[in-house]
Give the backbone structure.
Amino acid sequence: MKFTLPSSNGYTVYIKSGCSYCMKVKELLKNFNLQYTIVNCDEYLLDDTDGFLAFINERVGKDYKTFPMVFSDGIFLGGYTDTKAAIDTKSD
């Protein structure tokens, strides 16, 4: 299975259904009028969980399993809290 790579331009947010922090990070990016791409991972998790996590771990450089998984210009930020902190820092 081919997984969607993080974009080198703007934010890429990997989400799964039913994740409250996934919804919060989408709202955060929308409220700041930031360019973002949402990648719904439900199918990845159903078809190849281990492959998807290996794909993410390769990009992150460590074992990372929690959602959302947020990248900015292709660089891993973390989850909601990390993304909010990065945006708050930029907007100061």
Notes: The domain at 11-90 is CATH 3.40.30.10 (Glutaredoxin). The chain has one domain: 11-90. The first helix runs from residue 20 to 31. The two ends are 41 Å apart (CA to CA).
